From TrEMBL:
Organism per entry: Alkalispirillum mobile
Lineage: Bacteria, Pseudomonadati, Pseudomonadota, Gammaproteobacteria, Chromatiales
Name the record gives this protein: DeoR family transcriptional regulator
Molecular-function annotations in GO: DNA binding; DNA-binding transcription factor activity
InterPro entries named in the record: Carb_Metab_HTH_regulators, DeoR-like_C, DeoR_HTH, NagB/RpiA_transferase-like, Tscrpt_reg_HTH_DeoR_CS, WH-like_DNA-bd_sf, WH_DNA-bd_sf
UniProt KW Zinc keyword: no
Pfam families, A to Z: DeoRC, HTH_DeoR
UniProt keyword annotation of Transmembrane present: no
Length: 263
């Protein structure tokens, strides 16, 4: 906290300006940190956030606020071309965790596509539940697989189905293993930009006996808008580089196994 903030209380207008400036520098701010920085109560900051949202200056999120200009995730086919080598290494480790005859849940993420392509060649008699058309198509090449496609509203950016129909459908199944990714990973858990995407991922994690998060090193840069789940929901995290120290500590505290996919 700066000396200026220690010496005098900020006016409402000054707080609003500082919040706007903070959201210029990063996509999300937390009410708790604003209250501490401004030396005011959480309720005061919450009222500020509510009023600023009503004025169209920001977007309310769970526990904080986000800049209106926060970019959405690139389309799935665009993400698949980024960090392709790193995703392949992660997929190789993930494929080694799968056994013939298992029931899997795979979400619509760029890293699950190389995983699916490996499983088609290396495994038999899998039952795969997914909301992704690309994953369903890739899995269909192995005639011993049973592919179960979740319905819902089609999202052309993700190439997948989302919404209440999707989550209701997924709750009918129990999987041996769920492989999922996210927009970003924080010490509090995986996060996403889109609430519908987060909702489907959340249900998939809940419906699996073992949950593995696939996250390349770029996922550890900054949070997205909505937390999908706590770290304790995960069993394993596979990445291509050592995560930041705070996340390594949080993973250990939550009992999550960290696996680094080498070259």
């Amino acid at each position: 906290m700066s000396a200026g903030l220690d010496d005098q209380r900020l006016t409402r207008k000054e707080r609003w300006l500082m919040i706007e400036n903070m959201l210029e520098a990063r996509p999300v701010v937390l009410i708790s940190e604003l209250a501490s920085q401004f030396s005011v109560s959480v309720e005061t900051v919450r009222r500020d956030i509510d009023a600023m949202a009503e004025a169209g200056l920001l977007e309310r999120t769970y526990g904080g606020a986000a800049a209106l200009k926060t970019a959405r995730e690139p389309a799935l086919n665009q993400r698949a071309t980024l960090l392709a080598e790193e995703r392949e290494r992660i997929a190789r480790v993930a494929a080694g965790m799968v056994r013939d005859g298992q029931v899997l849940m795979l979400d619509a993420c760029a890293t699950c596509l190389p995983l699916a392509q490996r499983l088609v060649v290396e495994r038999r008699k899998l039952k795969v539940v997914t909301n992704s058309f690309a994953l369903a198509s890739a899995m269909a090449y192995n005639t011993t697989f049973q592919v179960i496609m979740a319905g819902g509203f089609y999202n052309s950016t993700e190439g997948a189905n989302y919404g209440s129909e999707t989550t209701e459908f997924l709750r009918r199944f129990t999987a041996d293993h769920c492989f999922s990714s996210c927009g970003a990973v924080t010490a509090e858990g995986p996060t996403e930009v889109d609430s519908d995407v987060a909702g489907v991922k959340r249900v998939m994690l809940e419906r699996a006996h073992h949950v593995t998060l696939l996250a390349d090193h770029d996922k550890f840069r900054r949070p997205r808008l909505e937390r999908v789940a706590s770290l304790s929901t995960l069993d394993t995290l596979i990445t291509d580089q050592e995560p930041p120290p705070d996340i390594v500590r949080a993973l250990a505290d939550a009992g999550v196994r960290l696996r680094i996919a080498g070259a």
